[in-house]
Structure formats: C-alpha cells, structure tokens
Amino acid sequence: MRQLEYFLAVVDHGGFNRAAKALYIAQPSLSQAIRNLEKELAGPLFHRIGRRVVLTDAGHALIEPARQVIRSVEVAQASVASVRGVLRGSVAIASMPSPAVEPLSGMIEEFTRRHPGVQVVIKDAPVPQAVIDAVRTGVTELGLLSAWDLPVAADVNLFPVERQRFVLIAHPEGPFRPGPPVRWERLAGQRLIVGEPGTGLRRLVEEIRASGVDLTIAVESEHREAFLPLVLRGVGIGVLAEAWRPLAERAGALVLDLDPPASLQLALVTRKGWLSPAATEFHRAATRNL
Prior knowledge:
With 290 residues, this protein is α/β, with parallel strands linked by helices. The chain has helices at 2-13, 16-23, 27-41, 57-83, 97-101, 104-114, 128-136, 200-210, 227-232, 245-250, 277-286; strands at 46-49, 52-55, 90-95, 119-124, 142-147, 156-170, 182-183, 191-194, 216-220, 237-241, 254-259, 263-271. This is DNA-binding transcriptional LysR family regulator.
C-alpha cells in the first residue's frame, strides 16, 4: 500500500522531487520504492525524460485501481472508528467554482458543526465532466456540479440539489440602474466578462448572442473570483450564478436578474457502491431537506 501511495504522489505532484517533499521523504527513497513497485508489476510506470516523468500506458492503467485500494483501506479504518461512535478522518469533495460558494459552504458549515473531527477537502473541478471523473476515479468520494442539463453518467450517482439562476453583475455607476430584470436585448453593445467554453456561463452568453444580441467578450476567465474585481474596475459586466450575489452586493456591485431568466441544475455526485462513514454522513446532511 505504501508503494501505491508513493506512486499516486508522483502522479498528483507531477514529479519525484515535489512528491518527495510532499511525503517528507528523501527523493532516493521514493525513487527506489517506485522501482520496487515497477519490478513487482513487471513493467515501467514512468518514462524518465531528464528531470521530467511521463506516465507509461501501464502507469495510466494503474491510477484508478491504486486510488480504489487506498480509498478502500481508508474506508475500512474509518468504518472501524465509527463503530466506537467517533467520526474521524476526511471527506474529499470535487466542486465547480460557483457551487463551491453556495450551497457547498452551507453544507460544510452544517457538517462540520455536527462532526468537528472530520476534515473536509475541496478539490477544484472546472466543468461537470471533471467532477464526475474525480468521483469515478476515486480522487474524491463526492462531487458537486452545475450544468444546463445534468449529464448522463452510468458509473456514478447524481442527486439533484437545487437550481441556481444567473444574475448580471455590473458597476454601480455603469449602464444599468437598480430595478426590474434586464432584458437580453439591453446587453447589446456591452463588454462582457465570461467563463471558459464548456461552462454554463459561457453557454448562456452564446444563447444571448444567438438571439441576435450583439455583444463583445472583453475577458474570458477560468477564475470566477476574478469577475467581481474586473467588474468593479469597469472592465465590463459579468454574468455569474446567483451564489455570488451576496458577495457582489457586499462589495458594492449592482446585481440584477435577467429576463428571460436562465438557470443551472446543481447535483451532488457520489460513486456507486459503498462510501466511507464521513462521506455517507456528509451526503445525508447535504440531502436531508431535499
């Protein structure tokens, strides 16, 4: 098991040097452990190219089984501990940016209040498929995604949580004033700050364009946290999920609804089969009021 942990550390940290630092072991010891693992498996797991390492086909094939082995041991340890009435360990969740603001923060607040001994780890996943892949491959046990239409995924479970509307974020001294929802045609001629292709934010902008509204993409950003500062600096207006409304209003931005409205479906993702006690309890708490 130790060798598999070392193997995954090299994969996740992108090389032996950074993996050794993260594991607090000497690099020669790490290299020897990987060589021993390769000997046991009768094949190389990495191509050594100077200081770089690149996964071989065998290395790629080992990632998912290795994560499952590590996760199985962690689940076993946590399950034994839970029999004693103590919920310990950690629960990892892959989340897209906007759902991580809300409702994930509220889910974590309730969960940690009930189970202060469990560490929650949040992993970034920019698009729905990245969330599904993280859960499917064992990087995390749980995921939270948002999508225009929920994807079909045979190897994970999806539990609809809520819908989140899109809102317009604008400078308080910009082209819009507080009032009723902004019709799409009023966005004509505006400069927009948008998300990357493949996201619900970008799809909405493309639908507005397809309706005949001529607008300009000023900034394309994978970082949702950059939208608000850019808006407040007058770079353009932004479209974000409603999860960002409280933060935007506190920062002094103008937040307006859109007409016609558009929204995303949010869903909690779990792998099929057993979950650790911590993940089971988090899922139970997150879906209690659904």
